[in-house]
Design a protein that fits this description.
The structure is a homodimer. By secondary structure, the first copy, chain A, is mostly helical. Chain A is built from twelve helices and no strands. The longest helix of chain A has 24 residues. The first copy, chain A, is globular. Chain A binds a DNA duplex through helix 3.
DNA sequence: TAAATATTTAATCAATTGATTAAAATCATT
DNA sequence: AATGATTTTAATCAATTGATTAAATATTTA
């Protein structure tokens, strides 16, 4: 009788708090903060509305929690890679492109969710608390990049140029998928296939952009 | 005595309807549909709330109007260029990159506004009514591209690849500016300068991506 | 088992928000 | 100026929404 309760097979696999959190991620990311009703989250989680305020104090608090986690998921793709000491720049880029491909295939709404909530600075405090700047500029990757520039391998430009190109080429097609699918006259499956082909090109492309 | 009224010097330069429209563009684009209060728009326009519903029937109707115009502004950058018959592919890309640079320097929120409102398909009907597909695939640019591929100038890939790379390189840095500024440790002015430098590189980069 | 603690529910509140209404003000026409 | 149409305003409504409360149920502890 020590344990709480024999969990049901499916719907009770997660604790109430975890159910709310998962539902919140889903609803916040697809509808955005302002369009999300706490009742939608409660319904999605299959719990009473009051429970949401029992576990998290408010909609805003719950959102902050979800947002921080989402930002973490998004940034981790980079942070995991950029401090490896035994891989080349090319290998790092390939790893980052692959990781974004995997992440955004599962959660294509992630970048727009983050950027659209960030835009007016309502929740923007979050960004400054994550110490992004240090993570990038003090990384092993930053040293590698500097060295490559010194050796004349790359044009002498701030590293952020490469980050822009890498992200633009790897992430933007996921963000603009609803539009690009129509323009390119592709269904979801064809678009997937296209993105998979691109994946293998992006590393070379990024390298090329740094050479000219 | 034929004319309506001698307009005031500044604040009455525009008709009431125009004032509401301009205020709506501003508020909708910075806060998004759901976070926008019709009262905010009325206040921004300096008019009574009821007037908003007098000129436009509802918030949704006003939004549709703003959204259609915004989509138009965003697409026009391309549509203006892609049917020119006496410019090269390189010149067209340069023109598009320049036009996006000008547009997004003035209105950096535009892409995220469009994509974030499009994401859940609530207002998505709009997209399908614009005949995007035809505009692109029946353009002179499409013929030029096809020819370049036949001549072996570009790798044989659907034109949408180029559109993705062009937009990713030219537009994404504007969308992610709040994040990239922190990562790159740049203030707004430095970021502007950086973007201006990039502008002159993007055409070459895009061409390169199509050659390998 | 009994008491104490933690979790869950139904009902309700107060504030916000999109929209309407009826009256007032302005403008155009004669 | 008198009349009619258009534009503007203040007041208000009904629905939604985030949050709370007090009671009920379940779980842990003594």
């Amino acid at each position: 009788m020590a344990k709480k309760k024999e969990m049901g097979v499916l719907e009770e696999k997660f604790s109430t708090e975890e159910k709310i959190r998962r539902a919140a991620i889903k609803v916040f990311q697809t509808k955005g903060y302002a369009a999300t009703r706490t009742r939608d989250i409660a319904a999605e989680a299959g719990i009473n509305l009051a429970l949401l305020n029992y576990y998290f104090r408010s909609k805003e608090k719950l959102f902050e929690s979800v947002m921080l986690e989402s930002m973490g998921d998004f940034m981790q793709v980079m942070t995991v890679v950029i401090n490896q000491e035994n891989t080349s720049i090319e290998e790092k880029i390939t790893a980052i492109v692959g990781a974004y491909h995997d992440l955004l295939s599962e959660r294509p709404e992630l970048p727009i969710f983050i950027l659209s909530e960030l835009r007016n600075g309502n929740h923007g405090v979050i960004l400054k608390t994550t110490g992004l700047k240090k993570i990038y500029q003090q990384s092993f990757f930053a040293q590698q990049y500097k060295l490559a520039v010194e050796k004349g391998k790359f044009v002498d430009r701030p590293m952020i140029w490469m980050v822009m190109n890498l992200m633009g080429l790897a992430i933007f097609p996921f963000m603009a998928a609803p539009m690009l699918q129509i323009v390119g006259d592709l269904d979801a499956k064809q678009y997937d296939k296209l993105m998979k082909s691109r994946r293998d090109c992006i590393t070379n492309w990024v390298i090329k952009t740094m050479k000219s």
